[in-house]
Amino acid sequence: MTLTPAQRENAQRFGFRFGPGGGHTSRTIMLDELESLFSSFEHGTARRPEYRKAIVEENCLVKRSVENRRLTYKHLVDLFSLNTDEALFRALLFFWERDPRSHALLALLCALARDPLLRQATPFILSFTEGTVISREMVEDHMKAQNPHRFSSATIKSMAQNINASLTKTGHLMGRSRKNRSRATATTATVAYALFLGYLLGYRGKDLFQSEFANVLEGSYEQLLLLAEDAARRGWIVCQRVEEMLHIKFPALLTAEEGELLRG
Fold first, then answer.
1. Is residue 43 classed exposed, middle or buried when 0-12, 13-18 and 19+ CB atoms within 10 A define those classes?
2. Contact 87, 198 (CB under 8 A)
3. Rounded Cα gap, residues 142 and 257, in angstroms
4. How far is CA 86 from the centre of its chain?
5. How far is 112 from 132, CA to CA, in rounded Å?
6. What single string gives the DSSP state of each residue in the chain?
7. What is the dihedral of CA 9, 91, 25, 102, to 10 degrees?
8. Mean pLDDT score of the chain, rounded to an integer?
9. Residue 41 backbone phi and psi in degrees, to 5
10. Which pLDDT does position 20 carry in this prediction?
11. CA–CA separation, 143 vs 227, rounded Å?
12. Per-residue confidence at 1, pLDDT binned at 50, 70, 90?
């Protein structure tokens, strides 16, 4: 989706990141660190400085050096924001609390919104059929083509390894040294979060099920719609079908000011 300047500015307010860099140049999706960090807080109560204090000063993630703690905090911010003023992160916490089974895919969806490099690589990997061997070299070649002359060979190699490792965590790949394409399993929480991310970018109605975030869930329109309707029954989102029209809204996830930005 091509964003207008106003949509892009709003998306950044909501927590999306654009630009040349990305957290996967040096780290994977950091799921274990995110699990440990959130387990140290009552969800929804911490602000970014509190997360920083817990990681850097209190060493809640048990890192060996202060420098490692600082880098860990930086990379977690790069991938997940850790800022409850941003709708993207607040919604991650909302669904994280409600469905522990979905943590890996929820983390991936958030990271996709914040890591341009992961957004480049994921559709390429998902374009292959189940069972296809996805080598590190294949991902390296794709990322080189997407970013000519921007990264060193060592950085491209690290990036490809990290991206493959992240997508193994989420079920899109399987295997240790030899990665094979597999399929992720969508859940009610991941569908609701994927639709919300698409909504923040300007998708509406049925188009929400065609966003880059919904595509990561690898379900048919009918399958994802059933899960969206389940999310509505739980009170997480609004999902109404009127003949051929589909109305989806997110009153539980947006502040009044954010709603105004989206309507404007």
1. middle
2. no
3. 40
4. 14
5. 23
6. -PPPHHHHHHHHHHT---SS--GGGT----HHHHHHHHHTS-TT---HHHHHIIIIIS-TT--SSHHHHHHHHHHHHHHH---TTSHHHHHHHHHHHH-GGGHHHHHHHHHHHH-HHHHHHHHHHHTSPTT-B--HHHHHHHHHHHSTTTS-HHHHHHHHHHHHHHHHHTTSEE-SSS-EE------HHHHHHHHHHHHHTT--GGGGGGSHHHHTT---HHHHHHHHHHHHHTTSSEEEEETTEEEEE-TTT--HHHHHHHH-
7. -150
8. 94
9. -130, 155
10. 78
11. 33
12. low
pLDDT of residue 12: 96
- pTM beyond 0.90: the answer is yes
Strands 173-174 and 238-242 turn out to be unpaired
**Structure-block tokens of residue 159:** 């990036």
Q: Locate 172 and state its tokens.
A: 């899109």
